[in-house]
Amino acid sequence: MLSSLIQDTSLKIRRPNPPEDMTENMTKFIIQYKDNDPSCRWAKCMGLKGDLYSDKYTLDYPPEVKSFTSDGPCQFGPTKKFGVLYFLDLRKWTENRIVLWRVNLRSDSPEIKAVKVSNTQTMEQQCNSGVRPHIPWNKLYPQIESHCIKVYEGTFEDIFTPTIE
Q: What is the 3-state secondary structure (H, E, C) of 77-107?
């Protein structure tokens, strides 16, 4: 219904994101089955802080998941540390199309720190001042494109099917 309202009226309405337990677990399955990381686990079920756990990353710099269903901004905790970023693009989930991007950058990388989140400030500047940086995917992606890998594009059902190699 909201989808058709947005399409019919061209209104810029931000869709609500699904709960983090759902999106983190969707991402976990895609990483396990499509990104060849069977060690990936949901951090909360392991009693850990953060979104995901993986043997590929340290506990201090775990995988971080951001999901979005519209062109609204994603936000970052000013002191949050991550070893890799995953962006779960659910803008076309009502058409049964989802995309997962892996961004091979750490929270302390110069490339992440230099991301322009406003006309006057970078991610680093906002984090240093205690502000939660907000930036939509369509503004972030062009600034870090060379570090982005499309891990998966397909249907919800297919995220549970291991890729045959």
A: CCCCCCCEEEEEECCCHHHCCEEEEEECCCC
Domain count of the chain?
Answer: 1
End-to-end CA, the chain: 39
Contact 64, 106 (CB under 8 A): no
Instruction: Indicate the pTM of the whole model.
Output: 0.89
What are the tens digits of pLDDT across the range 117-128? 999 999 999 999
Per residue in 66-86, pLDDT (tens digit) is 999 988 899 999 999 999 999
**Considering the domain boundaries, does residue 70 fall inside one?**
yes
Place of tokens 């890998």: 149
- Given the DSSP bridges, would you call strands 98-103 and 84-89 parallel, antiparallel or unpaired? antiparallel
Cβ contact 97:155 at 8 Å: yes
Please count the helices (runs of H) and the strands (runs of E) in the chain.
Answer: 5, 8
Run of H or E residues at 53: strand 52-53
Residue-range definition of the domain harbouring residue 94? 2-6+20-155
Nearest Cα residue to 90 out of 30, 45, 44, 148: 30
Question: What is the token pair recorded at 17?
Answer: 């994101």
CA angle 58, 61, 62 (to 5 degrees): 80
In angstroms, the CA 159 to CA 32 distance is: 9
